[in-house]
Structure formats: C-alpha cells, structure tokens
Sequence to fold (523 residues):
Amino acid sequence: MEIEVKGHSGCDISVAREQDSLYVYKSTYDVKYISRLLKQADKQQKAADLEYQHIRVPKIFDVMSDERHATIKMQYVYSKNFVEYFEQSGFEQIDYLIHAIEYFVEKELLQSPVRRVPKEIFIEKFEDVRSKTLIKSEMAEDVQVKELMQRAAVVFESMDDWQIPVGWCHGDLTFSNILFNGNNYYLIDFLDSYVETPLQDIVKIRQDTAYRWSQLMYMQSCDSVRLRIIFDKIDREVDAYFSERYEWYRLYYKPMQLMNLLRILPYATEHRVIDYLKTIISQLLNEI
Amino acid sequence: MKFSLIVPVAADKPEYNDTLPYVFGLDEEGTIICVKAVVGMDLSLFDNIYFTILRKHDERFALKRMLQLQFERFSLTQAKVVVLDEPTASQPETVYRTICREKITGAIFIKDSDCYFECEVRPKNGVAIYPLEELSVVDPRNKSYVAVDDMFYITNIIEKRVVSHYFNAGGYCFEDSAEFCSYYEQLRDLGHLYLSHIIYAMLLDKREFRPILVKGYKDWGTMYLYKMDVINQFR
Fold:
C-alpha cells in the first residue's frame, strides 16, 4: 500500500515503523517555530482527550524538544484525503460529515463563552498582514492589492469591539487537515491562533466550501463538478445552522473570513492563486 | 400527471460532419438503432415521446423524416422530433432545452439512445440499473455506478468509479420536470455536467430515487459494441 504523508505547516513530516506499528514524526528545526509547534501539540493532546462521536484526533505519544528543535511522535492514521472520500461518498456520508462538523464546533463552543474582544486585536492583526503583504515588491506594485488593503482597513477600523466566543478551536480546520477513515474523521495540524475562537474553525471550513480553497490547491485529476456539488451542500447547511443559532456568527463571520483570506495573501506565490484571492476578497468586501 | 419520454440524440462529434451517427443506422429489420433503444419499454405509458436531434445532422442526413417514418411504422402517434439549432455542452443541457422548447410538464423519463433494456416504468424518481456481472463484454470505466441500500433506495451515483455491482443502464426518471430544470440551472456553470451529477445533487437534498432493475440490457455504446451484439445474436 502506498503511504502518502503531507504537511502544510513547513515542518518535516516522516513515518516510521516501530515494532508492528506506524508512527508520524513532525519536527521543526526553526527555532522561531519551536514554541508554536509545542503549543500545537498541547492543543492536539487536549483535543484527543475529548469525545466527539465521529471526530477523532491522532494520539500524541511523545513530545521531544530542546532549544534547537522540537519533535512530536503521533499516531499514524490509515485514511483517504478529502477528494478520495468525496468522490465515493453517498448522500448519507456527506450528511454525517455535516453533522460531525456542527457537533465539533458545538463542543468547542461549550468551552468558549462569548466575550468582548478589543477591536485593536483585529486592527493590529490586519496591520501585520498588510505589512507582510506589501513588503513583497510584486504585491506592493499591485494597484488592486493596495486598493483591497485600503478597503479592508476601513472595515476593521470602523468596527466596535467584537463579541465572539473565545476559548478553544482547531485553528486551521480546512479539509486538507481532515483525514477520512470510514465514517470517522481525524483532525490533524492543529494551529495556534491570534484569537482562539470556534468562529475561526467555521471560517476555515467555509474557506473550502464557499471558496473551494483546498480544491484549488489539489493538482490531481478529480470529478470537480461532484466536489463542487458537495462543497455547495456543506456550505449551505453549515451557514444555515450557525446563522439560525448565533448572532455572533451573523455579525462577525464575514469580517473574520476577510481577515482569514487576507492572511493567505502574503504566502501566495502563483499568479492564479493571487488573482483568485484578489477576486474573492473583493467579492467579500462588496458584501460587508 | 403527464409522463414524457425524452431521447437525446444530439451528441456532436467531428466525425459526424461527414458520417451518419451510428445510432441513426438501421438494424437488419430496418429499425433505426435509437428507436430500437426504446421499444423495450411500454411506450403507451408515455403521453409524449421526444427524440432530440441537431439541425446540422438533420440537414445533412434528413434524420427528422427518417425518424417520422419509424414513428408511423411503430404507430407512435405521440412521438415527435425536436430539432436543436445549436449543439449542447452536455446531455442534461439537451434535455433541459427539450423541456423548455416543448414546455414539457410532469414526469420525464430520459433514455440513452445507445443501449437497450426492458423495464416497467413509473413516473417516480429512479435510475435504471443492471448488474455488472451479467455483461459478457464491458468497459467498466465508461459507466456510472449506483449504490443501493438494504431498503432498495439509491444512496449514491458516481461517474466511472466502480463502487457497486450495479451500473447505470442509461435510463433516468424524474417525477417533476420543473425540479430537473431547477437543479440543472443551479449546476450548469460548474463544469461538464452528467445526469448523474443532477441526481447526486438531488440525493444530497434528500430526494428519494429508486433503482429500476432492467432486463435484457444491451450495450450499444460504440459501433463496435453494437456489431458485437448483432453477431452474438446469431451465435
């Protein structure tokens, strides 16, 4: 059987067989990233302690670190990626997945009371994103990027303090970070976030379902029409579920999604990706 | 409620510029293949029968008159030829344009023109299925597959991936043509669309589809397969 292991965080990923079991080792030798990786391991360990019905979290067996590196040893999961899973899933599997996502965020919400978050946190984050974007000469010379940044600045500066749930979240809950094993879904690549809010997880899921981000990044052939049908379905259901229940979602989803998409911009290198980001950021700004 | 049969025969291929599409050829009894494709069903159940063709094929091969002669021969008084001026991008688009042109209401049964089967039809959502193991010659990659649960409801339909021993035999029933059009309009900009995509989108929205288990399936998906079927009849 072919084993494919991919990471998105810039860490080294390897798989090792020890006795009769496979383990994943995730490591960084970037001294600036060590503390983040340790935070992520802590987050993953805490998530693994909770019960989530169909949602699973790979167990962490060991965390090794010193001042120059950090390594996490964790459970290897035999699984399909989202494309392989969606290409074969019947309507019941998609229905289970939608409910699992809603259930997982509800569990997060139990640990995340709605709190006032000073608007300065978002303004500072935006300024950080803007400087990281415009430091790249290609972006700095792009009139459209500069215009989008100006419009986004107005959005964040004109908002009052945010009233959102704060406490706990995955941090990067895209379909690329979900492994599919039957009707169980393994969450990987937990990420520390500038605000630990379940809203971030809804935003990341909808980055894929509304904006098809992971599909855009997927380079192998697939039934793209079927995937889009599935993404549209998940998007409608997730949006309706949280819209009906939570005012914070109705008020803050779009600004949070705007920040999320802007945060991707400094890391985009391909023209098709930059153009796509500019288009969807512009569309979102028109809706706010 | 009205019940219409639609047979899309509007596929446009470069070779059809100077060669008759093989589904308009005659069998040894003088029946056009795409007409022969539907006679395994009880055609009296349909209020209307539509064969949808392309104008450029009609102008080159006089297909409309050929089909009308067949309708006379088989006493298909409710049958009609719909001639589209321009090629379509997909089979669902051909069906959609037929519905719009002819203002078709009620239930529709869509039958592929390049295969034959016998079955009982009812004006309910359904997909014609046939077990893969019953075929002697088959290219499994050219078919879509249908998964069925223990209660005999369709749970999944997939293009070109073998997820079940039932394949889609080339018959699709929609109990409401307006609903078909609504789904087509939602999906038409997503890319190359198959009827299976429309059914899958409806399944996700909890529409029920029943399998229609057909008998005597014959795959005429290519000229070669059609000739093989004719040869096999004489063995």
User: Anything to note?
Assistant: The radius of gyration of chain B is 17 Å.
